[in-house]
Amino acid sequence: MNFTFILFVLIVVALLILLAWALRKPEPRNAWRVKPASLEQPGPRHATYLSLIRQALSPADLEFLAARGSPSLARRARKERRQVALSYLKELRNDFQRLLRLAQVIASLSPEVGAAQEWERLRLSFRFSCRYQIVRAGLYSGLLVLPQLNGLSQVVSELAFRMETAMKELGERAVLAAKLASSPGGSGVDIA
Amino acid sequence: MVDLATAQSLATAQRVCWGLSISLRALLLCLVLWRRNDRSFPFFSIYLSANLLNALVVVVSYRVWDPTSPVLYRVIWGSQLIVSCARALAVAEICRLLFAGYRGIWSLAWRVLLSSAALVLLYASLVSKHQWGFAILGVSRAVELAIAAVIVVLLVFLRHYQVVPEPTLRSLVIGFFFFSCFEVLNYTILEHWLSAYESVWNFLEVLAYMACVLVWTWALRKSLPQLVLRPALLPAYVYRQLSPEINLRLRLLDERLRQFWRAEEPRS
Question: For chain A, which end, N or C, has fewer CB atoms within 10 Å of the first or last residue's CB respectively?
């Protein structure tokens, strides 16, 4: 066995793994399909619960519990708060992914696409995903204190608001396309 | 090394498989022409014709020339290279059909696919044995590896943009992919264990191709009058306006996450 032989075998194995990944069924959570009904609600759902989450994460509450209650109660409260923070972080990422999906749908349905824009989005989503995993690991391990998620949520909300107008148009066109496709001889129509 | 009895039984099995394989290729080509799918896949049809012709050339060449003749070597490998090029064109055609209607991402995809193919070709050629006797083997393997890599990049691209591939086209590319992967491995083993492996490698190749032809036959069993449904495209300004805006927001979001990560102090 020499280097070339092992190299080509590894390349083929890597290609097979990539093929399996590309052909796998999308997870229901991430499968944001281009259906007219789904286009009517493109914005983030979880960012709107920010005030409640902030209330739940308030340090004053924790101090109060530590002072007045038992240590076990404070520990339980901290644990539950961490769960809340983790759930919130997860849902924020879902919102982020939904918005990314929208961007991908817009790109796929556009007559022209900028390579630089697409490359940058790919790079950003990869970096965001890595950071998200690191923050999540930090919260799980207890190395990070409960986060202030205000800024993170705000950005997602603003983006959703700005995109809503464009998505309405996309939804109308998708409905029209679906009608045309379902009518006899209606396939193959480009309404752009 | 295989013994004489094994070699003889292998040669018999190989002859049977050759006959079966040529029949299946002819059947597939007839099916494509009968169903008028050659209109949807002109290059794929040319590839099937070239492949069938190649098989017949090989059979005739072995009868005309001595197996050790250098003329036979050149004829067989030369026709094999022509078939590989026809296969590359057929794959390119299917790539274009998979993106039919998605003008924007296709304009991006074909550049990415072509670059990937060029890089893989270059790399595979560089790492091959630099001996004249192995040159054709190295080039053939590089072409096969480029085809396999292009197909994977294509499917990853489709998944990224959530374009669901048409089932017939997907079956065709999967057939091409598995055959190309098999060829890469087969050529690699042949390159390293030439004397011990030469009696089986051609037999295995024929078997793999037969499996591939069966997949294609199943995929093309019906006519495909309207292969691709064109999606309704958005006006160009939607992307031009929204894409930079989305990227800006994503950059901000990423920056916030970075700050959020760094600002937190370890728990005391």
Answer: N
